[in-house]
Amino acid sequence: MVDIIVGTNSFVTLAETNSRIDESNRAALNWLAVDANRRKRSIISAFRRFDRQTWNGSPSAVQVAATIVINGAGTGWSVDDIATVSGGTFGNQAAAVVTSVSTGAITGLRLSNTGTYTVTPGLTAVAVTGNGSSATVDLTFATQTVIWPRTGMTDCDSQAVATNIYPDDLRFAQIELAYEISQDSSLETAGGVGSNLASLKAGSVDLSFFRPTGGEGGVGSDPFPPVVMEYLECYLSGADGGRSNASFGFVSGTGGTSVVTDYPTNFGLDEGF
Q: Phi/psi at 147 (nearest 5 deg)?
């Protein structure tokens, strides 16, 4: 079985991913037909792609739950219920999945969300909420080791991003990339994902190309599909407006001025080379 732990190997749950894709046309394009474990692996693979990128800002020193164990078993709980940790100051609450019960009392828990805390709740007999009642847990905490949350981040509207959250742009980008990987597993390790072909003219064979200046794939393309880059372009570190390994190029013709191009379609510069 593949387990998703938000804050450890993902920024989103499988349920969140299913729900968002279900709202789009992609729901009809094989996501839910994919085996649940493969969907989870696609989500984790997308997270790992993000982990290999260079981002603006720096990791926050937030505290995350490292372990969670039963203190008080409570009543009225069922297997697969989510027990959410109460208290503390957080951007994201720690939570656990109930893995086993005995007549409604919790006998097994699995951490499913590490949370992101600037002030942690207590360590002993901390209340949890969910479909049951009266359960408590013991916790330990550690400083985060993953790439988000981050300090010094601004979004594409130049608004500061809180230092204890996973912004929606990041979460939505992971969902989009997870879908793409589920349909094409080569994207898990792919470099640049675009093409340097700008246009193709049938009459007299008039080809135009982008000139590569970087890019993971060696052809000057962005490291992710466009639908993902639309969410991440303001957060990734790079030489071109914050895009990781972003590229630009020129389109050359047979008798005109070269045009500098930018991701995705910024044709504002027209000086020749």
A: -75, -20
Asked if 168 and 116 sit in the same domain, the reply is: no
The domain containing residue 69 runs over which residues? 63-143
Does residue 70 sit in the same domain as residue 138? yes
Give the position of tokens 């990041």. Answer: 170
Same domain membership, residue 139 and residue 20: no
DSSP state of 256: S
Asked if residue 167 lies in contact with residue 179, where contact means CB atoms within 8 angstroms, the answer is no
Report whether 1 contacts 139 (CB < 8 A): no
Cα separation, 55 vs 232, whole angstroms: 10
4 HSE (CA, 13 A, CB side): 23
The tens digit of pLDDT for each residue in 113-146 reads 999 999 999 999 999 999 999 999 999 999 999 9
Q: What is the DSSP letter of 76?
A: S
